[in-house]
Amino acid sequence: MQIPNQDTIIALSTAPGVGAIAVIRLSGPEAIEIVNDVFHGKSLTEQESHTAHFGTIRDNERADGIAKIIDEVLVTLFIAPKSFTKENVVEISCHGSPFIVQQIIKLFLRKGVRLAKPGEFTQRAFLNGKFDLAQAEAVADLINADTEAAHTAALNQMRGGFSEQIKQLRQELIHFASMIELELDFGEEDVEFADRQDLKNLVEKLLSVIKILANSFDLGNVIKNGVPTVIAGKPNAGKSTLLNALLNEEKAIVSDIAGTTRDFIEDEINLEGVVFRFIDTAGLRETEDKVEAIGVSRTREKMKQASLIIYLFDMKNDSIVEIHRDINMLENLGVPFIKVGNKVDEAQPELYEKLKEGNDVLFISAINKENLEALKTKLVETVNLDKFKTGDTVVTNIRHYDNLIQTQNALTAVMTGLESDITGDFLALDIRQALHYLGEITGEITTDDLLSNIFSKFCIGK
Ligand code: GDP
Does domain 9-132 bear CATH number 3.30.1360.120? Predict the structure, then answer.
């Protein structure tokens, strides 16, 4: 859909600050004329799309009547609809000085151009049909991607892989919806255009595809946000020391006194393209009953939110009974965990003997940074990124995940309805719901709230 008579917007598109070059972008019907008005060089209105032109930008509205040069620039033209926004777009490459950028932007604001809102260029691209909503969101993900896996996932999504799948599912469902709606039009006459068994088969198929997509979110979330990892263990086991050693900087407070690390500290390390987000469990210290520490409810809650637990125990002070009890508790929790015996430099020899065979324990000395590489390798091994490399679609966006789950619920209701032979009007209701949630993913159905919610998270200039 083309929205006519939009105003022309402007923003700095490169990062703010001093640089060799800064790029200021204008988009809108008047973009070329307005730039032409202050540009000294060729007449821009007579140039072809995708051409670059050297010249100067001059402030021609000064009180003294002198058209003062602001900068020498290179202007690139993109004539609608062959541009990012499908509108006329001009990119002005000027010298990367915040002063020059400010002067140029102010000049255009005086000429009636408006400052772009966050994500407005991308929003216009979406509204003008350049790409769908899921692809627009992938633009932001791509810019924010800081690992190879995140980059690949965002690129796949931006290039429309995921959208295609969703649109296809929706198309199949629309076909059936229209058959059912047709039945409703015939009301009394008791006709069935939509074969119930065919509909069942279709819903079953859709449910299985949606399930695969929804399940991929676990991996997608890891790719995008990292693996939430908890280091769990009794006070003084060496958790802060280990975290410090892993982060390689003094981010956690290491102390002999239990209780110094008061709040959960979150930090990240990037191991072979996987980000581990550490959640330090200072809450352990809130209990008087230190023996029960690992079972404390707040810690348990944190541990349940984690995708991975490093269970750290103290080879110098802990007993085999305590260790086994903790391991038991962790096994019941159902979150994958790695068993790590710390303070191996001062280990009780009999404890070491008991644990060294067949217990799958990794022995480290956090304080001496001993065997940390083995721990890092183990961390990476627990996250199976290989699955991702097959090129399957991976859902990385929680909004998409939410909508998939809602679609799943609506389709399950359709299935239940079909099995109990409910009337077409009820079926139609649930099918419409499913269509709605699927449509919201790609933006075939949108509301202003949804759009502003998505695009306000973008940077200005995107
Ligand atoms: P937390 O309460 O689990 O966070 O434990 P800390 O990291 O504060 O460590 C408690 C004490 O154990 C400190 O005195 C550390 O210096 C000490 N510690 C930590 N790691 C090691 C280790 O590998 N070997 C030895 N001998 N002491 C350690």
Answer: yes
Q: Model confidence at 67, in pLDDT bands (50, 70, 90)?
A: confident
Residue 376 known to bind ligand: no
> Do residues 143 and 411 touch, judged by C-beta distance below 8 A?
no
Task: Please tell me whether residue 57 adopts helix, strand or coil conformation.
Answer: strand
Atom of ligand 1 nearest to the CA of 346: 26
Architecture of domain 228-387: 3-Layer(aba) Sandwich (3.40)
How far does Cα 264 stand from its chain's mean position? 23
The closest-lying atom of ligand 1 relative to the alpha carbon of residue 234 is 3
Q: For residues 93 and 89, what is the distance between their CA atoms, to the nearest angstrom?
A: 13
* Contacts (Cβ under 8 Å, ≥6 apart) of 45: 32, 33, 36
Report the top-level CATH class of 138-220+397-443.
Answer: mainly alpha
Q: Provide the residue ranges of all domains of the chain, joining segments of one domain with +.
A: 9-132, 138-220+397-443, 228-387
Q: For ligand 1, say whether the CB of 343 is within 6 Å of any of its atoms.
A: yes
- The pLDDT tens digits of the residues spanning 278-293 come to 875 444 334 444 334 5
Over residues 159-191, the pLDDT tens digits come to: 888 899 899 999 999 988 888 888 777 766 666
Choose one of 236, 344, 345 to mutate for the ligand 1 pocket test, by most ligand atoms within 8 angstroms of C-beta.
Answer: 236
Query: Is position 261 annotated in a ligand binding site?
Result: yes
User: What's the ipTM?
Assistant: 0.99
Atom 17 (ligand 1) nearest CA: 238
The finding on whether 238 has its CB within 6 A of some atom of ligand 1 is yes
